[in-house]
Amino acid sequence: MKRKYPIAVAIAAISVLLSSCGGGGGNAGPGGAPLNGGTFTMNLGTDPGTINPYKTTGGTNRQIFAFGYDTLVARNPDGTTVPQLATDWQVTPNSVTYTLRQGVTCEDGTALKPSDVAADFNYIKDPATLSPWISLTVPVPYTVSADDAANTFTISTETAFGMLLEGAGSLPIVCPGGLEDADSIEHDSNGTGPYTVTEYVPGDHYTLEARPGYAWGADGATNSADGSPKTVRIAFVQNESTSANQLVSGQVNAAQITGPDRSRLDATTSLQRFDIPVMVGEMNLNEAPERVFADPAVRQAMAAALDRGQITQVGTAGTGTVATNMMTEAPVTCPGDETTGSLPAFDPAAATQALDAAGYAMGADGVREKDGEKLSAKLIYQVGAPQTVSAVELIGQQLRAVGIGTELTGLTQAAFLEALYTTQDFDAYYSGINLEFPFMLTAYYGGPSPAEGGRNTGGIANPDFESLSAQALAASGAEACSLWTQAHQALLERVDVLPISAGTRPFYTSKATLQTVGLFVVPTSIRLYQ
Fold first, then answer.
1. For the chain, what is the domain count?
2. In the predicted model, is pLDDT for residue 371 greater than 50?
3. Cα distance between residue 380 and residue 386, in whole Å
4. Theoretical Cys-Cys bridge with 504: which of 108, 126, 275, 409, CB 3.0 to 4.6 Å?
5. Domain of 173: which CATH number?
């Protein structure tokens, strides 16, 4: 029997880590014969709160609920779209009709119908149940229809949307029981996915069990191939060194390690490494009227004061590069250098002059003031990775050198998300927003606030970005990429965001292999070995 846990709801996370990548890192394979019926243990950094798919778009949350929920289509590592719950589709500039796979069942045994899928799409846009997934799947007005007899589901948009197939196809599908009782899936599952949640211990772990007969994963993947685990245990271990020790000793099968422990794990031949390109660090700003970065002069000075190359070295432990594109997932949908010529160059003297000209006078304590108010920014970040702490401390030092004070605040993931999406009590946050498609950025740098169901935590209003994004949404191919590049450069020229570092965030495995899509382990790809 399933165990229910009425725990308080956490807020949606900042990063949607979707895209495609995954490969070995050069260490030896796991060796041994496949282990059938075993337990796969994966460490994640922290308990993210809710795993109700429609309440969160967070990376850690999504990694957990990816085991319990499927999508209409999936992506291959080369970026191509492949069938999942839908076997085929018909696309027009304003609509997609998906034909659903026969024989798909929810974990309670009921058959999934097209009308159930339609109910999901109506649910996420209903003002009473408004979901952040709207902005990340179909960011234009739409209607849906279903024909259960023909086994088809159709979504139609008021305006052309060039990535409707992929956008609508990425929504996790919740079964009717989950929609009817949203509280029941806060820490449980009710989907069509390959695993079902059987236990949740707050702050410690989830346990999931394989669903018998599951055969409708991406491109027809199952959860019963040789080496597929019967049980999955997702443990919350915040300290990376602890996770690294458990990998080396064989206590766990997988963990994501980003800090200095990588060097010793790379030297451990019994482990495998799966590299995932990500945006490691950005300064994402709060431009609400009462916040320090509402002043364009302060934003420009902040960008000129920060040595992105030096921060990259520290923030990636020497493994990353300075970010040149707002998107870093592989394959990058619209590659190219977006930052050169769009961002202020590192020039502390220019930063000082800009602040002087804007009326910020240097105080006796080295922090500038204007109209009796200190020029000090609250910079929040997620705890757990030592190199993140070092990067944030360096940012604080470089800003202080030009007279901008900082309050550096490390938060757990749950507290971090609350600061972003509930209280908006921050001036900047250091993190990376990792997305599959450029249209998803529109939710973070424009549009509605979190209170209105959006992701625009910083209250950013950039007319050029919004105009160019609207044009790009309706376009496709090279035309769309040209418009998206211009839209991103409009953000950078105003310093609505400051990309700093790109790098990898690898999974290491012990006696196991896996494939990844973005930062997500694909559940049906996991294999255990003796």
1. 2
2. yes
3. 15
4. 275
5. 3.40.190.10
Decide if 13 is inside a domain: no
**225 and 308 within one domain:** no
**On the CB side of 17, how many CA atoms lie within 13 Å of its CA?**
28
Q: What stretches of 344-449 adopt beta strand conformation (E)?
A: 361-362, 368-370, 373-374, 376-382, 405-411, 428-431
At 160, list the tokens.
Answer: 């052309």
**Is the CB of residue 476 less than 8 Å from the CB of residue 424?**
no
**What's the pLDDT tens digit per position in 252-267?**
999 999 888 999 999 9
Confidence class of residue 21 from pLDDT cuts 50, 70 and 90?
very low
* Residue 298 pLDDT > 80: yes
For residue 124, being part of any structural domain is answered with yes
pTM for this prediction: 0.83
What whole-number percentage of the chain has pLDDT above 70? 94
Residue 227 scores a pLDDT above 70: yes
Identify the burial level of 51 via C-beta atoms within 10 angstroms of its C-beta, where 0-12 means exposed, 13-18 middle and 19 or more buried.
Answer: buried
The tokens of 509 are what? 């495995």
Residues 76 and 219 in one domain: yes
Query: Is residue 209 within 8 Å of residue 194, measured between CB atoms?
Result: no
Q: Which domain holds residue 194?
A: 39-275+506-528
